[in-house]
Design goal:
eight-stranded parallel beta barrel, six-stranded antiparallel beta sheet
């Protein structure tokens, strides 16, 4: 009996301990969740994006079977024919981790809609529409680039890797007229005069160049579909479906069947069907600006529709994004582009961001001059908006460092300047931009130099540098969207701080640092005893007397809080 009482007492004691233990765990719950939250990746913000821009035909050949299509076999000038790059090739590189290793969180690729079938000579030799800016049919993909199913796989693969997709779109003009590619009806396009670019009218109500029919975007008059397009759809077995979809679109929107609304419908279909995250809008200043507000409205509707239908695939609550190519726009212009006789605020017409044509000129100035200038503009005149910075591109012959003599400086300027960044394919690998025999912008469009990355140590070293900076930028929205603060003139050290709701991000960067033993002044930014990680040298340090001490042969440091 005594034994039984003793056993019962012991059992009651253990049960009591177990209950108390459970109570303690329950009380500690909120504290225990904190490390898990700190392990989450930084949220994505478009104004801090690290965007990779590539020409679809010149990046990677994923399917050699589509290299030649539509009988495009005529001889062309140097770098003015199709070279085999395609949608599958982009997907392959996503799966290989190439973009992730480079810290890319958005990919912009040149247009992939069906191009004119023939080639033309604009004065620089015979050229096919390899670049994607000569649309023939907005409702179809060009077979040289791939299929809609392959585009769907590309978008899904990108999203699975935390990468957004920017689709390059052209609404301003069709492709050139050839024997195989008839001109669109006169109710749809103007074929003259050629733009003179002296004021608003001679920039918008005209053709960019000879034989590039301009869509009459200012008209609200209803027009019939071109006979050639109807015949094409009929031959492809999709006439009825295309007409039914147009009927539903115009009944829902109540828009007149004017040229721009047909194209808006065709472009936003890709958003509705595939979940495209944003548009890069080509030739934005050559089209009446109300068009872009209308495009954004329909794209947003399509994006929200896709999100409702695919809740498990939604990355976050970011709205649809649009960045415009207002050729010649500079960040110093603030919100308005000046045509001479008229100023237009494109930020008030559907655009979150504009491509900034100024950084390539600023790049030769000292870092602090560049960084403080961009910080001041983005937090005053452009508050709540952003710019997309670049140093090289597909059509800027005056690109920075065309001879690739300063790849490390270029990386520092592009990836550390406030605003969003646009890496043009090959910036990170020193791809040659001066190709013998290539005329005009063709020299900027050589095939991606994968072979050099596989065999030349210098190119591999350059890529490694861009990867370090790119990953740091991707992990820290403070770099592109945060407030800039110089902490030390010599050695040059600056801090960036970004606050968005409950999210806070702080980093310190040192540039032009001496080799060997060095220190970075962080007083007033990180307190004494704070543990920091140098993401470039993979070194952990502790702040002492307002300083961080490092010893290595690097001239750069990327300091972040140590993750618990």
């Amino acid at each position: 009996m005594k034994k039984g009482l003793l056993l019962a007492a012991l059992l009651l004691f253990f049960l009591s301990c177990k209950e108390n233990k459970n109570e303690k765990v329950k009380e500690a719950g909120p504290t225990g969740e904190l490390p898990q939250k700190r392990e989450l990746k930084s949220p994505f913000f478009w104004n801090a994006a690290n965007i990779y821009f590539l020409l679809t035909d010149r990046f990677n050949n994923g399917d050699t079977l589509n290299d030649i299509s539509l009988n495009r076999t005529k001889e062309t000038a140097v770098l003015r024919g199709f070279m085999g790059g395609d949608i599958q090739g982009i997907t392959q590189k996503i799966n290989d981790g190439y973009f992730t290793d480079l810290g890319i969180n958005a990919i912009w690729f040149s247009p992939v809609v069906e191009q004119i079938h023939d080639n033309v000579d604009e004065g620089t030799g015979n050229t096919y529409g390899y670049h994607g800016y000569w649309a023939k049919d907005w409702t179809a993909l060009d077979p040289n680039f791939g299929t809609k199913k392959e585009l769907e796989i590309l978008v899904k693969t990108a999203h699975e890797n935390g990468i957004r997709i920017l689709m390059d779109i052209v609404l301003n003009h069709t492709g050139p007229v050839t024997d195989l590619d008839p001109v669109w009806p006169k109710e749809w396009v103007r074929t003259g005069p050629i733009c003179e670019y002296t004021n608003y009218e001679t920039t918008t109500n005209c053709t960019l160049v000879r034989n590039l029919p301009d869509i009459i975007t200012e008209s609200d008059e209803a027009v019939e579909l071109p006979d050639a397009l109807l015949a094409k759809w009929k031959e492809e077995g999709r006439l009825s479906n295309e007409l039914d979809e147009l009927q539903v679109f115009f009944e829902r929107t109540k828009y007149p069947r004017a040229p721009r609304f047909y194209i808006i419908k065709w472009l936003t279909d890709y958003v509705n069907d595939l979940g495209i995250d944003g548009f890069r809008v080509d030739t934005a200043k050559h089209t009446y600006e109300k068009t872009w507000k209308e495009l954004y409205s329909e794209a947003s509707y399509a994006f929200n529709t896709w999100k409702r239908k695919h809740p498990e695939e939604v990355l976050d609550d970011n709205p649809f994004f649009m960045v415009g190519e207002v050729y010649g726009y500079k960040i110093s212009s603030g919100r308005e582009y000046d045509f001479g006789d008229k100023k237009v605020d494109y930020f008030d017409n559907g655009f979150h961001s504009l491509i900034n044509f100024e950084l390539k000129d600023d790049a030769n100035q000292d870092y602090e001059t560049i960084f403080s200038k961009y910080n001041d503009l983005l937090f005053t005149e452009l508050e709540g908006k952003s710019v997309l910075n670049y140093l090289t591109s597909h059509d800027d012959i005056d690109s920075f460092d065309k001879e690739r003599k300063n790849p490390y400086h270029a990386a520092n300027v592009l990836l550390l300047t406030p605003g969003a960044s646009q890496i043009y394919y090959g910036d990170e690998s020193a791809r040659n931009l001066t190709i013998e025999g290539a005329q005009g912008d063709a020299t900027l469009r050589s095939f991606m130099n994968w072979g050099e990355l596989d065999s030349i140590p210098l190119n591999q070293k350059i890529l490694g540098y861009w990867q370090k900076l790119g990953q740091f930028r991707n992990e820290h929205p403070a770099i592109g969207a945060g407030k800039h603060q110089r902490l030390s003139k010599s050695p040059y050290v600056f801090g960036r701080t970004y606050l968005n709701g409950e999210f806070k991000d702080k980093v310190v960067v040192g540039l032009k640092l001496p080799k060997g033993k060095k220190y970075l002044w962080v007083k007033g930014f990180f307190g004494d005893g704070t543990k920091l990680h140098d993401a470039f040298s993979e070194t952990e340090v502790t702040v002492e007397n307002g300083k961080v001490f490092l010893e290595n042969d690097l001239d750069i440091a990327l300091l972040e809080l140590v993750k618990n």
